[in-house]
Input
Amino acid sequence: MSVPTRRLVPADLRAVVIEDGFWGTRQQINREHTIPHVYSQLEASGRLAAFARDWQPTAAERERAAWGGSTVMFWDSDVAKWVEAAAISLTCHPDAALAARLAALVEQIVARQEPDGYLNTYFTTIDPAGRWANLRDWHELYCIGHLIEAAVAHHQATGDTAFLGAMQRAATLIAEVFGTGPGQRRGYCGHPEIELALIRLWQASGDARHLALSRYFVDERGRQPHYYDEEARRRGEAPERFWARSYEYNQSHLPVRQQHTVAGHAVRAAYLYSAMADLALIDGDAALFEGCDTLWRHLTTTRMYVMGGIGTSRHNEGFTSDYDLPNESAYAETCAAIALVLWAQRMLAAGPDRRYGDVLELALHNAVLSGVALDGTSYFYDNPLASDGDHHRQPWFACPCCPPNLARIIAAVGSLAYAGSDDTLAVHLYLASHATLLLQGQAVRLRQQTSYPWDGAITLTVGVDTPLAFTLALRIPGWCEGASLRLNGMEQPLELHNGYAHIHRTWHDADQLQLALPMPVTRLYAHPAVRAAAGRVALRRGPLIYCVEQLDHQVPLDALRLPADAALDANLDTTMLGGMVVITGTALACRSDDWPDTLYRPTPPRVAATPLRAIPYFAWDNRQSGAMRVWISEGGP
Amino acid sequence: MSVPTRRLVPADLRAVVIEDGFWGTRQQINREHTIPHVYSQLEASGRLAAFARDWQPTAAERERAAWGGSTVMFWDSDVAKWVEAAAISLTCHPDAALAARLAALVEQIVARQEPDGYLNTYFTTIDPAGRWANLRDWHELYCIGHLIEAAVAHHQATGDTAFLGAMQRAATLIAEVFGTGPGQRRGYCGHPEIELALIRLWQASGDARHLALSRYFVDERGRQPHYYDEEARRRGEAPERFWARSYEYNQSHLPVRQQHTVAGHAVRAAYLYSAMADLALIDGDAALFEGCDTLWRHLTTTRMYVMGGIGTSRHNEGFTSDYDLPNESAYAETCAAIALVLWAQRMLAAGPDRRYGDVLELALHNAVLSGVALDGTSYFYDNPLASDGDHHRQPWFACPCCPPNLARIIAAVGSLAYAGSDDTLAVHLYLASHATLLLQGQAVRLRQQTSYPWDGAITLTVGVDTPLAFTLALRIPGWCEGASLRLNGMEQPLELHNGYAHIHRTWHDADQLQLALPMPVTRLYAHPAVRAAAGRVALRRGPLIYCVEQLDHQVPLDALRLPADAALDANLDTTMLGGMVVITGTALACRSDDWPDTLYRPTPPRVAATPLRAIPYFAWDNRQSGAMRVWISEGGP
Output
C-alpha cells in the first residue's frame, strides 16, 4: 500500500442542495418532523433545562445506576447532536424560527461554560468532584466532542464564532489536563468521539494544537500501564472488576496500531477508526492507514450484516465473533451504522475506492435509514433482520443517542455524496442534487438528476464558468453489472480505478453524462459460516436490501421458500408508503392443512405456490405490525 | 370417549428383572455409579446433614433469594428421590452396603418427624414460623410428596413399615390442616407432586383418606377466591406482585377441569396431569380423563420436542406458545421428560394405546436418557437440540432436582415396560428382561430377549404353570412400518387395537412370540409452523432420535445439507461408546474456500460431498466437546 495522503475532501455542507427525489423527501421530513420532534423530546426529558444556569436536578437525575454512572452524564451529547443537525439543516434551508431556537440554545450552552473552559452540565452541577474521575465510563470527553462538532457546524451555518471559540477554550483546557507532559494525566475517553471532533475543530479553526490533541488521544489509547487501571485504583475500585469485563469494550485493550480485528462496542469502535483514518491521511501515516484498512476488511468480510448494520450483540452493544450474525437478536444499533458511514467517508479521503463507497451507500440506505420511521418521529435503537412482530420504533429512549444522530446524518447527506481535490471530483452517492465544489480555485457545479435508488438512470450536468480539466470519478457500485456511460450522448468506455469510473477531460459548461446502473433483483447468499443465513437468500435491488413483512403474505413468513429459479420482478408501487419499488414473485409455502394433530412425520410438508412481496428493509414496520424477515429460505418443492 | 376405568396396573417393581441388554447396562451404571454419586453429592452439599437432629444451618443456608425463598427449602425432595432410587434398585439387586446406608438414612428421616406428624428439615430447623406460610413457592407439600414416594418404595423394597407409617402420619396431619371443612385451609402446593404421591400412599396402605386428600388437592387447585392471593395478603404481599407473574406458572390459573392447554412450569404441569389421570381412572371420571387427553393431545401435537423433551423456555422452565420449539435455547428439562414418562404411564392405565406408549418410549430413550452421561456421574438439567459446544453435563447443580430423578426413573424402567389386568398383559417397552405378573391370580412369566433399541427383533416367551387364557398386548410403535409377528414359528396376522397387537389365546408354557419391528433410518419433518425446524430434517431409527456432533465431521455442522434422496445406512459401531448403532451417509457441505474476502455474494455457495455420521441423541456430549445439531438442513446442490 502506497503512502496515503488526504486526497479527497468532502463537499462543504453549504455547497450541496438536495431539493427533491429520495433524499430530498427524507431531508424534508427530517427538517419538518424529526428535528422539531427531537427538540421537544430533549425539552420534555429535561435535557434542555440542564443547560440553564439554575438547573435543579431531580433525585432521579442524581441517582446512579449499578455500573456507577448515570445516563444524565451523556445528556450534553444528545443536545449537541441536535444543535449540529439544526445547524446543518439551516445551511441549505433557512428557517427563521429554527435559527432563533438554535441561537437561544447555543447562547445557553456557551453560558454554561466554566471560567476555566470546562463544559459539562452533569459534572458542573451534580457532581463537581467527579470531573475527570472516570474517563472509562463517564463520557465527559465524548460529550465535549459532540459539542465541538456542534460548534463547528454552527459556525459553518451562521458564521458566529462564540460557540466555536468556547469549544476551542474547552479543547485548550483538555490539552492542559491530558497529555504526556509533566503533571498531565495520560487519559483518554472510554467512548471515542472527541478524537474525530478535534480534527474537525482543527479544520474549522486552523489551530494545530487541536489536531495534536486528537493525535495524542489516539496514540495513548491502550498503552501500559493502563490509564483505566490507575484511574480505577484512584477511585478505590479494583480494575479487574470493570463491569464490561474487558477493555475490548472501549477499544483500549491494545494500542490502536496493534488492533487488527474490530472488537467491543460498535459505535465506539467506528468513531475511533474514523479518527484513526483521518489522522493517517492527514499525517501521511501509511502504517496507520493500513491498520485502518485491515480493520475495515475484517469488519466487512466477517462481521457486517447484509444491510450494513454492525455490532451483533446487545450485551456489549458490539462485536462478538466472526460470522456471528444472528437475525432476530441482531443489535445493529442505528448509531453504529451511522458511525460506519462516518468511517467510510473518512476512508474515502484516501481516494475513490468502492470498497468504502459501496459500504457507505449500503449502510446509509439500509441500516441507518431503517432507524427512523417514514414520518420522522419514531426510531429504532437496534435494527434486527428478523422480527416476530414485537419490535417497533419508539418516540424516545432512556438513552436517546440514535434520534439526534439520525437527524444530523440525514441533514448531512450532501457532504457524504461528493468529495473533491484539485484534480478530481468524486461522486460517492447518487441522489437528485446540485453541488458546487472548488477545484483549482474554480467553482465546478454538478447537477445530478435521478430517481435513484428506485432507478439506476443518472444524468450529471457539469457547470463551469470556463473550461476546466479535471477527473470526474463516478462510483460504479459493486452490486452493479453492465453499467454504461454516455458523454454528451456518446457511449463512453468505462475506465475503472478501484471501482470508480474516471472520466478525465477538459470539461465545458453543460457537458452531460448519462450513467445507467442496471438494477435487476439480485439474490444474495452469505458466507457458509454465517449460520443464521444458511440455506437462505436476501433480496437486493440496487443499493437497497429488501425484506418480507407478514402483512403482505397469506402464510407465515417461515413457511416461505423461494425456489432457486423463481422469477422476481421489481415495480414501483405508488400507493405504498409514498411510493416504493417492491419486489414480487411466486414463492412456495409449506402447507400445514394436511398436518392434522401431527407435530412430526416422515413425509415432507407439501408446498403450494404463494405470492411473495418484498419491500425495502428501511421501510419495514411502517404499516401494520407484524413479522419481518430479511433472509428467506431458498428451496424447491 | 367411553367412561374409563383403571384397566392396566404397572408391573410391580419387584417382578421385573433387567439383567442385560440396553437397559441392563443403563441400570448397572445407575446402581454402580449414579446412585453412589448422587449420595456423595447429597452428602457434600449438606443435604444429608440437614436430617440430623442437631443440624446447624450455615448462613448461606439461611439466606433467602430475591424471590423470597431458598433452594434449601427443597432439599428434602432431593434426598427423598435418592431414597426412592436406592429402594427401587434394591428390589431387584440386593446390595448389603446400599441397604445399610439406606436404612440409616431412613431412620434419620423418620426421627426428624415432629410429634404432630410434620416433616420438613427447613421449616423445622430454619424457619418454624414459615410452616404452611407460602404454599405457592416454598414446596413443603412437594417435599413431603417425594418423601411419601420414597416411603412407598422403601416399604416395597424392605417390607419395613416405619417410614411408610411416618408418612401416613404426615398425610394425616396434612388432611387435618387442608381441606374444605371448618377451620381448614383451602390450600394446595405450588409444585404438584403430593397429589400423585398420595395416590401411591393409598395404593400401598389401602387408606382411602390419602386418596381423598389427593382428590381434594386436585379439585381445589385454581378455584376462586384464589388461595395464593389470600396467602400472599396474609404475608403482607400484594398478590399481583407474584414473581412468576401468572398462576399459569403453577397451573393454578384455572380449576384443573377448565385447563385445556398445557401451560407453565413443565415439571409441575406433568406431575399434576399425572395425578389427574390417576384420579380419573380410579374414579371412573370420564370428563376428567377426557380433560387429561385434551392436554395430552395439545402437548404432543404442538409443544413437544422431537426427542420427547417438553418445556421450551428457561424463564418459566416451561411452556411458551404452540410450535415454539427453538433448538439452541430449548430448555427441555430432564425432570420434565421424566414427568412426561410418568404421565404417559398413568394414561396407559386406561388401556393399551400407543398414543401414550409411543411418547413414553420416545421421552424415556431420548430426552430422559440424554440427562445422564454414559458413565452415570454427570447430568444435563436442560437438554437443547443444538449446541455450539458450550453445553455440557455437570456433576451437580445448585438445584439438583434432575440427578436423583434420573436415578429413580432408570431404576424403575421395569415398571414402565409392563402392565397387567385380569385379562391382559401389556408390553409397553421392549427390553431384555424377565417379568412376572399376576393375571387372574396366576403368575404369568414373560421373558423378553432383544437387543432393542439397536435392533427390532424381539422374542417373547410365556411362562405359565397351567394354561391360561388372556390377551397379550404388544405395542406396535407408530414409527414402525411392516411389523410382523410369529407365534410358535407361525406367521400371525397383526390385530391392532389403538396401536397394540392383541393376541388373545390360551397360553401354554413356553409359547413363543417373535416380533419383528423393522428399523430403517427415517427422516422426520416438523409441522411447518415449527420455525426452528423449517427446511430441516431429524433422523430417527427405531425409538431413537439421532444427532450430528462436530467431532464426526470435517465441516461446520451448519454447512451440512442432506439431499432429499441421500441414502442413509445404520450400522453397529462396537468401538464407539460401548457400542452404538450409528447412521452414516453422504451429505453435501457448502464450501467456503471460494469465498475470499467475501461475506455476501450473488452466487450460491458451492457444495461438495462430505460424510455424514449421526449418533443417538442421548449419547451426545460423551466424547470430545463440540457442536451438536438434531435438525439438519435438507437440500440439494
Remarks:
- Residues 9-419 of chain B form a domain with the Glycosyltransferase fold (CATH 1.50.10).
